[in-house]
Amino acid sequence: MPYDEKLADRIRDNIPSGVEFTERKMFGGLAFLIGGHMAITASAKGGILVRCNPKRFDKLANEAGVEVAVMRGKEMNGWLRVPMTKLKTKRQLLRWINTSVGFVITLPSKR
Questions:
Q1: What pairs with residue 50 in β-bridges?
Q2: Which residue of 9, 20, 31, 70 pairs with 41 in a disulfide if CB–CB is 3.0 to 4.6 A?
Q3: Is 45 part of a structural domain of the chain?
Q4: In this structure, are residues 105 and 19 in contact, taking their beta carbons and an 8 Å threshold?
């Protein structure tokens, strides 16, 4: 199943202005990278993968419907899977974009 292109457009259109990002197709989805770090991904499994601050990870992971992301049978520390049911409105999506971007911009650039 390919990623949802409309969701990718929504992500692209709502990354805060002034934040430089690149896009890369990865794992069947479309990843948005900031400073070379994956920040948020329109997932091929539906919904999004969101990178978040480890200090907030446990609290965010315990929200209804949100799951710790798993790849190849292993939990991905710092990554959450957010289903489309939690991304219906712009406000809902912006919350996750801002959570991710707010953390990733604090990381040293990989470039």
A1: 40, 80
A2: 31
A3: yes
A4: yes
- Whether the Cβ atoms of residue 1 and residue 45 lie closer than 8 Å to each other: yes
* CATH number, residue 55: 3.90.1150.30
Rounded CA separation 52/99 (Å): 6
- Report which of 103, 108, 95, 105 is spatially closest to residue 53, judged by C-alpha positions: 103
Residues with Cβ within 8 Å of 64's Cβ and at least 6 positions away in sequence, in order, are: none
Question: Within 15-87, where are the H helices?
Answer: 54-61
Residue 111 lies in a domain: no
Residue 110: inside a domain: no
pLDDT, tens digit only, all 111 positions of the chain: 689 999 999 999 999 999 999 999 998 899 999 999 999 999 999 999 999 999 999 999 999 999 999 988 999 989 999 999 999 999 999 999 999 999 999 999 986
Please say whether the beta carbons of 23 and 31 come within 8 A. yes
